[in-house]
Design goal:
Elements (H helix, E strand, L loop, with lengths): L1 E3 H11 L4 E4 L6 H9 L5 E3 L4 H15 L4 E4 L3 H4 L2 H9 L5 E6 L31 E4 L6 H13 L6 E6 H5 L1 E3 L19 H12 L4 E5 L1 H6 L2 H11 L2 E4 L24 H8 L3 E5 L23 E6 L13 E4 L2 H15 L9 H21 L8 H11 L5 E4 L3 H9 L8 E3 L9 H11 L5 E6 H6 L4 H6 L5 E6 L4 H11 L10 E2 L2 E2 L4 H8 L2 E5 L5 H11 L3 E6 L24 H11 L5
Parallel strand pairs: 2-3, 2-4, 4-5, 5-7, 6-7, 9-10, 9-11, 11-12, 12-13, 14-15, 14-16, 16-17, 17-21, 20-21
Antiparallel strand pairs: 1-8, 18-19
Helix pairs in contact: 1-2, 1-6, 3-5, 3-16, 8-12, 10-12, 11-13, 14-15, 14-21
């Protein structure tokens, strides 16, 4: 079999069942794009307007479909543009394959167009290494079969993440003689590490002996598709369940055992249940600072005296931020299944429906909802964010998919929008990436063309990748973006006021002097060819969304929302370490007193 390097790559993508490659052509990937042309019946090219968005689209596709896509770029700037998308996927453990053009192997070091070579020849890929799980630097087409197979293995097994393969321009074009490539399954491991049996038994004994057990479900439960085992284990034990942002949707949010979320921007009910647990089972959880209220005891967790069972596919995470009673390394679904079997052997199912503990959960959840009811039901105009979120929830069916990025919109959707099915709430997590939601939602729509997909974003977030409306229109990707326009970086403005005081508000609002200065996003969206409306009354939201979804094309609903502190976002029931400058003397004293309690 005589193939060019680009044909080898393309053939493996087709064999792996990759339906789309997303990227922008350039002189550094010309041969690769031509190989895609020759296999266009098997592999469709989607051409976004920016490489960051290409990675976000592949990210969103995986989160819905559970299968990775490939992203391709030219040399230099095009490859560098992927860094934000890669970092987002890396922190949230999302597999995707990045193929970047690189300097001809025989031209390395001469300073060809877009080469970075002052420290090392052809050095640009090194800036991406911290954002990928593994990278392959290719020197010859004969290496590609092995490298591509290893890349698909690496990004899917263990703790998932993005993989990088460099493709020098001559490697893309050179012909080599190769044996037939093996089918992908011949090089793929198929096991799910189930955890040490002794550790599973220890954990089961702790859980069955607990009077206030709480299960914290993280993104690992979603990635491993362990939601059925999670529910069965919780119901057998009568355990309370809370989730992280990446774990939201792993457990039905209308279930009597569910207490929502713990963390600095989470819920009072979630924080109460996790701080008062006697045994905590954390599955697929990193214990990041926001989820743990910057490790202040009693804010989100009380570890110790709470006894922690921590299960994760990545042994590095176990014991990293909290001491453990039992640490279990393995796949979340397999561990939950193993714990369920062990618990069933120790105790019969508990009558959780009528238990005092279940009633306690319900009381605290009801208390949380009461705190936000006024803003959620407000008829004021401009719209409160809570009311806008509630109107979107009324329209979307249970299987509808919602994307959020960083900021007040994400925090309040996290706190107040219920989801009952996994993989229907998807968020940029640990890297807190603005501009993620809209292109990621486009990727999700490619994965689930018959499912309503909504990007629920702020105006600052949406404008960062606004150009991808052109892509959505070109490829007829019917994502609806609901843009809650507060005319600025509202989350940071609120934080300035809360942490430093009203006088510290600076450089966070879009204004000319003191007058708001924001683009008419709906008008601009129509110029791209999308359906768009701007509204400001709460009773307009649901009809506008129903109409946009019925149209079956790209659409933008711009909702002008109240930007006043107190109505501009949700509550912050936990603690988050935001250092206060010493010249704010009284505020600094309070900050130092709060910070002294942190355990890190």
């Amino acid at each position: 079999m005589r193939l060019t390097g680009s044909e080898i790559v393309t053939d493996i993508l087709v064999r792996e069942g990759v339906p789309y490659v997303i990227g922008i052509p350039g002189h550094g990937n010309l041969a690769l794009v031509d190989a895609f042309r020759r296999r266009q019946d098997d592999l469709r090219v989607i051409m976004p307007r920016h490489e960051q968005a290409a990675v976000h689209m592949a990210d969103g596709y995986f989160r819905v479909k559970g299968e990775p896509l490939a992203v391709f770029t030219s040399i230099g700037a095009g490859a560098a543009n992927t860094a934000i998308g890669l970092a987002t996927a890396y922190v949230d453990s999302i597999p995707l394959l990045l193929l970047i053009g690189e300097t001809h192997t025989y031209m390395r070091g001469v300073g060809v167009l877009q080469e970075i070579e002052r420290q090392h020849w052809s050095d640009m890929p090194r800036m991406l290494y911290p954002t990928v799980k593994r990278a392959w630097h290719i020197d010859s087409p004969v290496q590609l079969q092995r490298a591509m197979s290893q890349a698909f293995n690496a990004m899917r097994t263990g703790r998932p993440g993005p993989a990088l393969v460099t493709l020098p321009m001559d490697v893309q074009a050179d012909l080599v003689e190769l044996p037939d490539a093996p089918q992908p399954r011949a090089r793929r491991p198929h096991d799910r590490p189930a955890g040490d049996p002794t550790a599973l038994q220890q954990a089961a004994r702790l859980l069955t002996g607990a009077s206030r057990p709480v299960i914290v479900a993280g993104g690992g439960v979603i990635l491993s598709e362990g939601w059925d085992e999670l529910r069965q284990l919780a119901e057998h034990l009568g355990a309370c369940v809370v989730t992280t942002m990446q774990g939201k949707g792993a457990f039905p949010e209308d279930h009597p055992l569910y207490a929502w979320h713990m963390g600095s921007n989470a819920t009072t009910c979630g924080n109460y249940m996790t701080t008062h647990a006697d045994v905590l089972l954390a599955v697929g959880v990193r214990f990041a600072d926001k989820a743990a209220s910057s490790y202040k005891p009693g804010a989100s967790f009380s570890i110790p005296p709470t006894r922690l069972i921590h299960a994760d596919i990545d042994p590095f995470e176990i014991g990293k931020n909290y001491p453990v009673e039992v640490g279990i390394v393995g796949d979340a679904q397999a561990i939950l299944a193993g714990l369920l079997e062990a618990v069933r052997a120790l105790t019969p199912p508990r009558n959780w429906r009528d238990a005092p503990y279940t009633r306690e959960i319900a009381e605290h959840v009801a208390g949380w909802w009461a705190q936000s009811r006024a803003l959620r039901e407000s008829n004021s105009a401009p719209v409160t964010m809570g009311r806008a979120i509630g109107e979107v929830r009324k329209v979307l069916p249970p299987e509808g998919i919602v994307f959020t990025s960083s900021g007040n919109v994400q925090a309040q959707v996290f706190q107040e929008m219920p989801f009952t099915r996994p993989r229907t709430y998807l968020a940029a997590g640990g890297f807190s990436t603005m501009g993620w939601s809209f292109p990621a939602a486009m990727g999700a729509k490619l994965a689930a063309p018959d499912t309503p997909v909504v990007a629920l974003v702020g105006d600052g977030d949406f404008l960062m990748t606004f150009q991808e409306l052109a892509t959505a229109v070109q490829y007829h990707i019917p994502v609806v973006s609901v843009v809650l326009n507060n005319q600025g970086w509202q989350a940071i403005r609120d934080l300035q006021i809360i942490a430093y005081g009203e006088e510290a508000v600076y450089a966070t609002m879009f204004e000319d002097g003191r007058e708001p200065l924001t683009p008419h996003i709906a008008d601009a969206a129509r110029a791209f060819g999308a359906h768009a409306v701007r509204i400001s009354r709460p009773d307009e939201i649901a009809p506008a969304l129903e109409h946009a979804l019925a149209l079956g094309g790209p659409a933008v609903i711009e909702v002008m929302v109240d930007s006043s502190l107190g109505t501009s976002g949700g509550l912050a029931p936990g603690w988050w370490d935001v250092p206060v400058p010493g010249y704010f003397e009284k505020r600094r004293e309070v900050y130092e007193r709060e910070r002294r309690d942190e355990r890190i």
